[in-house]
Specification:
With 235 residues, the chain is α+β, with helices and mostly antiparallel strands. The chain has helices at 11-15, 18-25, 108-117, 119-145, 148-163, 172-179, 183-195, 211-217, 220-233, and strands at 29-33, 38-40, 48-52, 56-62, 68-74, 94-99, 101-107, 199-202, 205-208.
């Protein structure tokens, strides 16, 4: 049971007023998400909102021939399933658990009632939605114009922010799928980072050794997205 002074380790839930939180507290369920689990796929009905705690969810856009690229990432700063509050019962992309851990889940019916009745709750969720739009826009720009090293650095930083654990258990093949590039390009990028002492790699794992250097290697997309997320909670 939570202490009265602590609402949740998810930042959106923590930002709710006491009255707003009490309205959904009784229907919050803590669930364990497993790596590779699909929370929602294309055209699947959204029945719950998921508020990650120490898990991370990738938003993957998939082409008809099976190619994929990550267009966004959600961790303890956000919520999965928000499209249902914006008049959509499903999404056209995949919500894939890329880092397992805990999340809090609430029925969408209750969330819709609070969204409709509480201007403060609605404002918070709409600010967060805009931060996701910015993240998606930066991901598109990044994939088009920035180097694989820039993109790998950005992704490692964003994942580290959300999971805050080391090492990160990801294969080169997984990063290639997430970033929409070739596996050999990921291997070359990580090899250069390891040679520079920025990361250390092993079989299926990556350890960030020098975060400052990783930030220097990243493009501006990481910082723009991060600033937008922080603005959600500093408004």
């Amino acid at each position: 049971m939570r202490k009265d002074t602590q609402k949740s380790e998810n930042r959106l839930l923590e930002a709710l007023s006491t009255e707003q939180f009490q309205r959904i507290r009784s229907q919050l369920t803590t669930v364990v998400l497993k790596p590779g689990q699909v929370l929602y796929g294309p055209q699947q009905p959204i029945t719950h909102l998921y508020f990650p705690i120490d898990s991370a969810i990738s938003l993957l856009s998939i082409s008809k021939d099976g190619n994929s690229v990550e267009i966004g990432m959600i961790g303890a700063e956000g919520v999965v399933g928000i499209a249902a509050l914006l008049g959509r019962n499903s999404v056209s992309y995949i919500n894939l658990v890329q880092a397992g851990g805990k999340a809090e889940r609430v029925p969408i019916v209750l969330a819709k009632d609070l969204f409709a009745q509480s201007p403060a709750f609605r404002s918070l969720l709409l600010r967060y939605t805009y931060s996701v739009i910015v993240q998606v826009a930066q991901s598109a720009l990044c994939s088009m114009f920035h180097s694989v090293e820039n993109r790998v650095a950005r992704w490692l930083l964003a994942t580290d922010d959300r999971t805050q654990v080391q090492p990160l258990f990801y294969t080169h093949e997984f990063l290639a799928t997430i970033l929409g590039t070739r596996r050999v390009s990921i291997t070359l990028a990580l090899g250069a980072m390891e040679k520079a002492g920025i990361v250390e790699t092993g079989r299926g794992k990556i350890t960030v050794k020098d975060r400052k250097a990783l930030e220097s290697l990243s493009c501006e997309c990481y910082f723009i997205s991060k600033k937008e997320i922080e603005s959600v909670f500093n408004n």
